[in-house]
Every structure is written in C-alpha cells, then in structure tokens.
Amino acid sequence: MDHSNRKDEGNRAAKIGIAGNVILTILNAVIGLAAGSTALVAEAADNFADIISSLIGLIAFRIGLKPADKDHPYGHGRIEPIVGLFIALILLYVAYQIFFEAYTKFIMLNTLAPPGWIAAVMALVALVINLYMSGYLLKTGKKINSHVLTATGNQKRMDVLACAAVAGGVVGSQLGYPILDPILAVIIGFLIVKTALEMGIENFNSIMGKVPPNLEDRISKVVLYIKEVKSVDNIKINPVGPYYYAEMDIYLDKKMPVEDAYQITNQVEKMVLESIQFINGISIHVHPEDNLGV
Q: How many other C-beta atoms can be found within 10 angstroms of the C-beta atom of residue 38?
C-alpha cells in the first residue's frame, strides 16, 4: 500500500473513532443521569476513556509514519504494537470495573430501583454505533496493517457487548429479574478479558519480532521466480510495526558478470517489494552458486 494512502486512511479512521466516542460519551451521560441508569453513566465514563486511548492511538499512528532517521534506521513503526499493548491493558481494567460493578449489584440486588426504558433504548442505539465503529476500525486496521486501529476496533467490539449487557439489565429489571444484569455483566467481563489477553499476546509477539506464518515461503517463491536465481537461503524478517524488513542470501551463476549480478539483485528487490504487501525494505547478499549451503 502507498505510504500516503495508508496515512490518509489511518488518520480518517482514528478521527471517526474519536468523534464517535465523543457523541457516545455525551448521550450516555445525559440519558443515563435522566433515566437513573448507573450502567449507562459508567458506559459514558468508559467512552470518555476510549476518547483518551483513541487520541493516544492517533498520536502513535502519526509517530509511526515518521520516516527512518539516524537513530531509528527502521523507522518508528514499533510504537504501534506498544500502544496496542497499552489498549489491551485498558481493556483489562474495564473488565475489572465490570466485575466490581456486578459484585456491587449482587450485594444490593433488592435495593436498586430499575432504570427507565429510555436507558435500554439508548443502550441499543450505542450498540449500533459501536458495532459500526468496530467493524470500520477493524476493517481499516487489517487493510493498512495497523496495530493501533485493530486494538481500538477490538475495544469498540467489547463496547458492543457492554451495551448489550446494559440493555439486557434494564429489560430484566423492568420485568422483575434484576439478577439478570450482574449475570450478563460477569459473562461479558470474561469475554473482555479473553479479548484483552489475545490482543496483548498479539502485540507483544509483534514487539518481540514474531514473523507471520508462511511469509518466508512467499518471499522465497517470488525470488525463485527469477530464473537466474539458483537458490535463496537464510531469509530473515524483522517486523517493525506495520512493516517488515527482509534480509536474504541469493545464489547466482559464479560466471555471471558483476554488472549482471547487480541487475538481478535489483530485480529481486523490486519483485519482492511489489509482490508482497508491507515489505518495506530488503537487504540482499549475493553468493556464487558453488557456495550454496556453505
């Protein structure tokens, strides 16, 4: 993907995420207070925290776009999985809050006044908004290989579940089953913990340099498509945020003139960069075919 297109799509998605969270924070707070719904007010506080994490994500995305320099020869992309890990920790804290609120409701089950039906309507409206935002952020995050947008999309997906719990709790309270609210909250809390751990592991693996499956094989197939390349070996891939930097050894006919070997090397580099998305740099070491396996 073109660098400028990635920048435009990422900035647009981050801004939509922030705007959506601002709207949800205001609506949840106003209607939650009017309807006497503690859950909606808590959801407003969660949306406000989402605004903060989205702003941090936008800043991180823009920092990650900065070109390589003397101190950062591979660029600044590693900030994205670092912030993705931070958002996973935020989700764990949200899960803790949900468990604590559920415990409180279990203790005070018979003393809580049921919130008005308008709270359920607002929760369903917020559910639809969060569902759209999560789908858009996850789709864009996958398209531009952004750890930050993917993490934010997963965060909004958990908000969908939280809104479903709020709506279910209101309905249960109105129908005379207030225990339904904390039960749903506990179930959703565990789902959030599961998502947070998966996100944390994914971003931690990226920071530690884990390579996507089959990427080496894909590079090898592209290189060997050039008939002058007798073999390719010792492929190493360095993930840097959304991008990958590859290093490899190729083996050419030992009688090939240096100028021809240089042209073949350029051809290999061009084909890999054009054929495999998000490969952003290649270092190629040329060896004579007699040294194959040495």
A: 18
Helix or strand (DSSP H, E) at 161: helix 147-174
Give every residue of the chain whose pLDDT is below 70, as ranges.
1-3, 109-113, 291-294
Contacts of 171-177 spanning 24+ positions with Cβ under 8 A = 171/120, 173/112, 173/114, 173/115, 174/114, 174/117, 174/120
Longest CA–CA separation in the chain, Å: 89
| Residue 30 near residue 118 (C-beta atoms within 8 A) | no
The whole-angstrom separation of Cα 261 and Cα 188 is 59
Say how many C-beta atoms besides its own lie within 10 A of residue 223's C-beta: 23
Strand 243-252 and strand 231-240: the pairing is: antiparallel
What φ, ψ does residue 16 adopt, rounded to 5°? -65, -40
pLDDT > 70 fraction of the chain, expressed in percent and rounded: 96
Contact yes or no for 91/189 (Cβ under 8 A): no
CB contact burial 137-160 (16+ within 10 A = b; e otherwise): bbebbebbbbbbbbbbbbbbbbbb
C-alpha distances (whole Å) from 153 to each of 12, 57, 171 are 14, 11, 27
Q: Which CATH class is domain 3-207?
A: mainly alpha
Q: What share of the chain is helix, strand, coil (3-state, %, to 5)?
A: 70, 10, 20
Q: At what angle do helices 117-143 and 147-174 cross, to 10 degrees?
A: 160
Q: How far apart are the C-alpha atoms of 137 and 21, rounded to whole Å?
A: 13
CATH 3.20.20.70 given to domain 215-291 = no
Q: What is the residue extent of each domain of the chain?
A: 3-207, 215-291
Distance of alpha carbon 155 from alpha carbon 133, whole angstroms? 10
State the pTM of this model: 0.76
